[in-house]
């Protein structure tokens, strides 16, 4: 009887201990899921965003959900440079275009591969990426190229590999934009773990993607960069452009740190690759 009691007691104690361990583990998991990640700090106490980052998605082809598509010249290229399918990065359904703006978007897509035959067409037809124009914000973030964040207390520099584009984010002050520009004017502030950036004064000649999604000179972008682990940022961009869209809308995506040894931001100077495309019509036969 005593042996049977001992065995029963031991089994009960083991079960209780196992339940305690499982409950403790569940609490740890729950706490890990609900406790926000706290990034390492720079000397001034702000979240450290320094590093080389890159998006890994299909948003540069189309920020909305899309199917696969052929390459620009299937007879010559086969499957090379074909469009991959993507789930999209836009939250809340289709982009809320105004009717006349949606017609313009469709025209952009139809003329995305148009080779300029005049200086006017250089500005009005074809994807700006094909011309090596600076990509603007937010497109520069999710092109298939890395970018580097260099952080100081007064300003943050972001250098993009594509077209050697750069932008400065002013922290703690709000100077007026000297003029409209390709990459706009960026004013930043910290909200807890997030860097929040207001981007204004962008010219209207950049697109959001290769699908012809576009904006006007009234574009206002609010970006959020939030560390979610040592090697990941959550990137969010809220788009407000009353000339093109009926309401503001938002995109979001993770950004990944380039962690290979001796990671570098290497120049991609594409101007020479675009010269014949843009100005070939000016050359003598």
List the helices and strands and how they pair.
Blueprint: H1 2-34, E1 51-55, H2 74-77, E2 90-91, H3 99-110, H4 119-124, H5 139-142, E3 147-151, E4 155-160, E5 166-171, E6 185-191, E7 194-200, E8 220-229, E9 232-240, E10 249-257, H6 271-279
Parallel strand pairs: 5-6
Antiparallel strand pairs: 1-3, 1-10, 2-10, 3-4, 4-5, 6-7, 7-8, 8-9, 9-10
Describe the overall structure.
This protein has helices spanning 2-34, 74-77, 99-110, 119-124, 139-142, 271-279, and strands at 51-55, 90-91, 147-151, 155-160, 166-171, 185-191, 194-200, 220-229, 232-240, 249-257. By secondary structure, the chain is α+β, with helices and mostly antiparallel strands. It folds into two domains: 1-32; 51-282, no CATH class. The chain has a nine-stranded mixed barrel. Strand 4 and strand 5 form a beta hairpin. The longest helix has 33 residues, at 2-34.
Summarize the structure.
This protein has 285 residues and is an alpha+beta fold. The chain is 24% helix and 23% strand. It has two domains: 32 residues; 232 residues, no CATH class.
Main attributes of the structure:
285 residues, alpha+beta, 2 domains, nine-stranded mixed beta barrel, 6 helices, 10 strands
**Shape type:** globular
Q: Would you report the number of β strands?
A: 10
Following the backbone from N to C, one meets helices and strands in this order, namely: HEHEHHHEEEEEEEEH
What share of the residues lie within helices?
Answer: 10-25%
Major sheet attributes = 9 strands, mixed, barrel
State the end-to-end distance.
107 Å
Structurally, the number of domains stands at 2
Low-confidence stretches: 1-32
What is the oligomeric state here? single chain
User: Number of helical runs?
Assistant: 6
Query: Helices and strands: which structural class?
Result: alpha+beta
CA radius of gyration: 25 Å
Give the rounded overall mean pLDDT: 88
SS strand fraction:
15-25%
